[in-house]
Amino acid sequence: MVSRADRGRVADWFWTIDRYFLFVFVLLMGIGFMLSFAASPAVAERIGASEFHFVTKHAEFLLPALMVMIGVSFMTPKTVRRTAVIMLIVSLTLMVLVLFIGVEVKGSRRWISLGPLGIQASEFMKPAFIVVCAWLFAEHQKQPEIPGNLFAILLYGIVVALLVAEPDLGQTILTTSVWGGMFFMAGMPWLWITLMAVFAVGGLTSAYILLPHVAARIDKFLTGEGDTFQVDTARQAIFRGGWFGQGPGEGQMKKIIPDAHTDFVFSVAAEEFGIIFCMALVALFAFIVMRGLSIAYREKDPFNRFAISGLVLQFGIQSFINVGVNLELLPAKGMTLPFISYGGSSMIAICITAGFILALTRHRPETRSRERSLFSIAHGHPAE
Questions:
Q1: What domain of life (predicted)?
Q2: Is residue 149 a part of any domain in this protein?
Q3: Do the domain assignments include residue 215?
Q4: Residue ranges, the chain, pLDDT below 50
Q5: Model pLDDT, residue 220
Q6: E strand residue ranges, the chain
Q7: pTM over 0.90
């Protein structure tokens, strides 16, 4: 057991970390690993791989991802900012390269091969983009002469342009939603907010007109006509599960659901473990968002406030999109369920996001005490 009297770095981390966040993040990782046993063997069989191919791969990513999350949680807010800047530069560079040398999958170029590794650069861009924009919004709020808001808008334009070029409409919508929430929290004038809303509507309309696959998905969602096999099968799996599920390993729809281990793992969970289990899973994601926003509301530092809010919004909105598609409440769109879906890039990237949240929400009484002491000395009062 680590003593409170021990002021080493590990002891300091242990006593200052938000244990609720840490527990929920690790719990979700465990649930994701458990569901990989339920969802992935059928997919592996369809592609001719060994039964536990994806389970093994999931396990291989799990420990490094956990280590990344814990390592990042040791950072100070200043280190978080610097790390995010480097991550953003690297990920944007890779997103440019992926347009020319990326691997094309289903008509989109989102992956780039670096030796034996396949990396989806946009996954790593998201947390870095949120932190850097939070920094820009905060600097403008503290020093209005710094055009932080303008830089955040320009950066958003660059990111969206690269996502559209891949194309990746789902990540574009996610990034826009999170950035829009931070934009609103930063206290932007209503005129700017209205202009951004008009821009978002115009972007969606243009995507519908110019991108046939986007129009097809929206039309299928609105009319129910055409190839709706994925969402229909996912919905049937949820109905079959009922309140308490068919039991572990007893699901049948996973054998025919495409991407059962990634985009539609929620439906597999519903069939085998039931609606109550899925409601508990949704409650965990809601807890992350609500606790994060509650902590951000009490934060005095604007950077911490914006960054925490943006990072937990990413969790919430990404989860909402994935679950909404599974429940046929949203048009079909590939979007992983954080910590739950299979995927190396998404797992590592979401653990970086979680690590940022843990780092920024740590209690720092010594820092606050030092700040009060310096304030007292500066004003001629004895330090407490």
A1: Bacteria
A2: yes
A3: yes
A4: 366-379, 382-384
A5: 72
A6: 103-105, 108-114, 117-119
A7: no
